[in-house]
Hints:
This protein is α+β, with helices and mostly antiparallel strands and 467 residues long. The protein has three domains: 8-50, no CATH class; 67-250, PH-domain like (Roll), CATH 2.30.29; 273-406, PH-domain like (Roll), CATH 2.30.29.30. The protein is 27% helix and 25% strand.
Amino acid sequence: MSSKPVDHTVIDRAFEDNxxxxxxVYSAIASTPEHARLFEDIAKYTSTxxxxxxxxxxxxxxxxxGPAAKKRKLINGGAAATGQMGGDAALLAGLxxxxxxxxxxxxxxxxxPQRKKLRLELTRLPAAASASASAGGxxxxxxxxxxxSGEVEFGVPLEKIQHILCLPVPEKTQRxxxxxxxxEYGDGITSAPDGQVSFEPIVWTIPDGPPRTAFLGSGTPxxxxxxxxxxxxxxxxxxxxxxxxxxxxxxxxxxxFVSPTPEAHRKGDKAYHVKAFRGSKExxxxxxxxxxxxxxKKPLIFFSLENIDSISYTSVLQRTFNLNIAARSPLKPDExxxxxxxxxxxxxxxxxxxxIKKHGLQDASLAEARRAKKLNINGVKGDPxxxxxxxxxxxxxxxxxxxxxxxxxxxxxxxxxxxxxxxxGSEGDSDGSGxxxxxxxxxxxxxxxxxxxxxELGSEAEEVEED
Length: 467
């Protein structure tokens, strides 16, 4: 009976940093070839202990239907035939390969694409093992592994990541952060071409504290080499920024947007989010230096600044308004997609309007002019407030009213016309007939405007502070 050739790759990987022991293993195999399989199994088990990777058989997916099942989980939208994927098949192979571990974080809470606790890993493959390796000869992957079964649940090649956001989790008593990975074709606007593999967005949550469950690839705790002020947030930001070439981790900034209402559950903390609805789904808007994000539930949407066609205000009420964002996919620039984010509190309008002016995202009425000028219409590069007053009465340098202010003015004009129809003899019943319609809106809580707000808001009308 012929013996199976020794798998040198498995043994070399297991004992790569212990040359004398590796030499003894090969000597033992040479003297007792019947024990070769035993040494291979020991090598596989050693690799598992070193990197918590699955065994060679489970990683290779030797079970019937194993690779297909993994593809259904790893590929957004499911069934893409291997023949159609072309070079992207190498990406999937590298994602699940028994690769060199760079760092990992145990017991992270993932929200998207699966809601469960998994292990976050950053792995690296040499050029010889990956057809997708970069010019530097390495291909790196960010992936989530099931800590029980050892199976890779999902992940994304670093080269396919377009945006990484680190956002504070709203309405939590304890400070937490969500890391949001937006891969190519995963922004909710741009669809992948036919036959092209796309990877799903990934969201995981970290606490605000020392990175106690973070480890280097060798198994050394990250805290041993970290400074005393290191947190999960700072450690992951620093590590990912050092690996990413095409983007960096983006966080909210007061220079871009901050809500006038502080965090309700953490007194003293500034809030960088705005509560909004898309249809019946509640979420949070973040206005960032690279675009506008809406999350944290499926489907996530990220409006990159260069993809935004125009922004306008609609359904303006006494306490809320809607934000309409028209966006264009880079793959289909002639098709405009409309997204309506509704029930935004009026107190957020000045900050949102300043953000729109700062980045040249004009009202819908100016969209054609913006396109004609190739989005280069920012007349003022200094303080955003210099481009207009705080209430958004002027948009950019064109001297035109924003749609929100225009709608407010039309509402006031309509109320003035209704007042003209009143019986002059009832003047004595009208307190302060010379007062402005704005003052009347503040004083009258049960009038038509108030009823309209209640119809629009329902029970939420009681939760929003009046200006």
